[in-house]
Write a structure and sequence with these properties.
Layout lengths: L5 E5 L1 H4 L1 H13 L4 H4 L10 E6 L6 H14 L8 E3 L2 E5 L6 E2 L1 E5 L5 H12 L13 E5 L13 E2 H5 L20 E2 L4 E3 L2 E6 L11 E6 L9
Antiparallel strand pairs: 1-2, 1-11, 3-10, 4-6, 4-9, 5-8, 6-7, 11-12
Protein name: Kinase A anchor protein
GO cellular component, one term: nucleus
Keywords: Kinase, Transferase
């Protein structure tokens, strides 16, 4: 399978200073070995991924054209969709205590986001046929530097039990037994969807956006 080059993003961290501050508070609460501190997603980079794709210089303009046509293909309302970060969980779990991805996200699907994923699948840009799983990555073993031959999982259980960490998610340590668990990390509007370049960095530390489309029928309501 070709390596993905671009992804559809809801750039929550880039859009919302309050969320950036909460992620920064989480980073400050963590006491990680130097090798594990590189696993953290930067506050400007946290996002929801609606799909990944492999694009060439020839196919990128076609994907951008589809992106820009989304307002004519979606049932938009005057209000942008809201993302509520109320579930904490891991992906690629290797044991009771070890996993490769720690994430927070909405407990319920967001139909508009699922439809965007479907549109890009129907046009052949997204080839992953699995149902969309909305999640905002906080830690990922593939971010580790220096790179290892194979990504090494991290001890998420011990990380979450560090003093003050679970308070960043609006819960107490006494409430934690296992993941997934309900948390309270805020609700945020999603005014636009972006097509971003994988692994890129702009001057603010966010991913480079190649283009975007509104997710509201009322442009005046969007930043």
């Amino acid at each position: 399978m070709a390596r993905p080059t671009h992804f559809l993003s809801i750039p929550l961290g880039q859009t919302h200073p309050t969320l950036r501050a909460r992620v920064a508070d989480l980073h400050a609460a963590l006491n990680l070995p130097a090798q594990d501190s590189t696993l953290l997603a930067g506050p400007q980079r946290v996002h929801l991924t609606l799909g990944v794709m492999n694009l060439t210089p020839e196919t990128l303009p076609t994907a951008l054209d589809l992106l820009h046509r989304l307002p004519t293909l979606l049932p938009l309302t005057d209000m942008a969709p809201t993302v509520t970060l109320d579930t904490l969980d891991v992906l690629r779990r290797e044991s009771r205590r070890r996993a490769h991805v720690l994430w927070v996200g909405p407990s319920q699907p967001i139909p508009l986001f699922s439809r965007i994923n479907e549109i890009f699948r129907e046009e052949g840009f997204i080839t992953d046929m699995r149902p969309l799983k909305l999640h905002m990555t906080l830690m990922n073993s593939t971010y580790r530097r220096p790179r290892t031959k194979r990504p090494q999982p991290f001890e998420y259980d011990g990380i979450l039990r560090q003093a003050g960490v679970l308070e960043c998610f609006g819960v107490q340590e006494s409430e934690y037994a296992e993941l997934p668990m309900a948390v309270t990390m805020g609700s945020y509007d999603a005014p636009r969807v972006h097509l971003c370049e994988m692994g890129s960095w702009d001057t603010d530390g966010a991913y480079v956006s190649c283009g975007s489309a509104p997710l509201s029928a009322n442009p005046m309501s969007m930043p």
